[in-house]
Amino acid sequence: MKITQKQMVIVVVILLAVLGGLLMIRSQIKDVQINVPYNGHGGTYKNLLVTMDTPDPSVVYHQGFYYMTFTHDGIDIMLLRSKTLDFRNAEQKVVWYPPVNTMYSANLWAPEIQFIQGKWYIYFAADNGQNENHRMYALEAVTDDPMGEYSFMGQVTDASDKWAIDGLVLEQDDQLYFVWSGWEGDENIAQNTYIAPMSNPYTINGPRVMISKPDLEWEKAGGPPYINEGQAILKKDGQIHIAYSGAGSWTPDYSIGLLTLEKGADPLDASKWSKAIEPLMTRDDEANVYGPGHNSFVTSPDGSETFIVYHATTGINDGWSNRRARAQRVKWNEAGHPSFGSPLSLMTAINVPEGSGIYRSVDAIEEVDGYRYTGIVTMVDTVIPILFHYKNVTGETRALTVALNGQEEQQLKLAPTLADELGYVYLQGSLLAGENGITLQGADVKEHIYAIEIPRYEAEYTTIFGDSETQDNPFASNGSTVFIAESKQKAISFSNIKVPSAGEYEIHFAIANTSGQEQEIDITINESKKQRLTISSTERNQFIPNSMIVKLVEGSNAIHLTNATSPLEIDYIDISAATKH
């Protein structure tokens, strides 16, 4: 009898229930010194951030979600919302359509989303079908939901009313400034960087000041016209920078430069701005990355890191085609100046932003007797571990009810903790394909639960070796898997794996094995002794968890898979509490 994928999920749920699947892990374990604060389960991601064309990406992080807008074929304003920087399965919504037959009905370029003075704004350039009429416009959100309705606030312009694109607001010392790319006159000779004061988020109340023009050789590539555009604000320790893109956006030489304001100076004083002579990010032919540019900056969920989000292509002759969003860390030198580095290849596994994957209760939906956590997305029905962060200083074990999608209910028991420590407890649950909600209910839930997370690590975001390769698979957890060839060599490495505290954990390797018989693969944790894992025989596209208890350390762990005895296909690994067999 053949077992369907749905039946297999049910079997796995029953087995996990029998095994318990529930264990409290304290943030302090006897004889273990805590040196690394736990800040989420870590993991890696890879560029691209999204599979569709997303030129001119503008990304912000707010109350537990990342939001992205971009040039959406020049016809409307679209927003994406995701719990992580991975927007591949993000919620999508067009939040505004332009009316017909106006000066802003066509060629909507480079929308910029910003949260200013407690409200959401989107700035965009548009025209009436004729490029020389491009001007900047503003939308204001009607509610506090950035995915909701917007009101058109009109044109954002100074008295010159010249050609303008790529505008956004700089906030500094309770003053607002508008920064944009524009023409000096009425002809398309060069695009300069301008700044002007504002009386509110959609009104300029002073003359524009040019703070940069494309006068460096690298800025002139592909011209004329010569380009300064795609401005983005970057701040650190009281220092203001404006990143901008130079060279023709239609060329592979499109690059990112930097303007820096003298610390404490007036942003309207052009003499106080300096320009980096060389671009901070440019094409990398070896990595097959061309035309990196028109970026934005966004923080990690915990606010400790800054990421640059930019578009680029993979073909030297792509021009304006295939421009898709990518992201990587911004680094800083001792003088407080940023470094963007070379654009990373699509094969590079990048550590996720610090604090990623944590669904904090302060960002959850409050209900009468609990919290509801949303935005939990999977592409298939799946069983998954849920890690709860809590504090319980009552001296007694407390019980809460966990409901998945309003149906599956389980009891969650919280052992006592000390006043200055968090406890961590795992529970197994079933998610459905699409977006899921997890509800916690109980008299004490708001006093006890700080956050939840889903410690799943997708194989396609790891470092792969040899003949291993990523492949699309609609039956996989995130739509992709890694094919592992029969080989004695290293096949795949999961890195930046983090757990609440050092100790024993159970790792579940979701692997399809269509050989018709059991196979084996070596598992190495960090640089410890190899362990042999037996892989059950499965049907095609059946990713059955094969489990192993291992010891993990605090901080970052690496899990290496080598020496597969047969071709295998791995979907993901999950980490949960070690169960007693």
From TrEMBL:
The active site is at residues 56, 229. InterPro entries: Galactose-bd-like_sf, Glyco_hydro_43, Glyco_hydro_beta-prop_sf. Signal peptide: none annotated. The chain crosses the membrane at residues 7-25. Keywords: Glycosidase, Hydrolase, Membrane, Signal, Transmembrane, Transmembrane helix. One of its GO terms (molecular function) is hydrolase activity, hydrolyzing O-glycosyl compounds. The keyword tRNA-binding does not apply. It holds the Pfam family Glyco_hydro_43. GO terms for biological process: carbohydrate metabolic process. The keyword Hydrolase applies. PANTHER family: GLYCOSYL HYDROLASE, HYDROLASE, FAMILY 43, PUTATIVE (AFU_ORTHOLOGUE AFUA_3G01660)-RELATED. Belongs to the glycosyl hydrolase 43 family. This is Family 43 glycosylhydrolase.
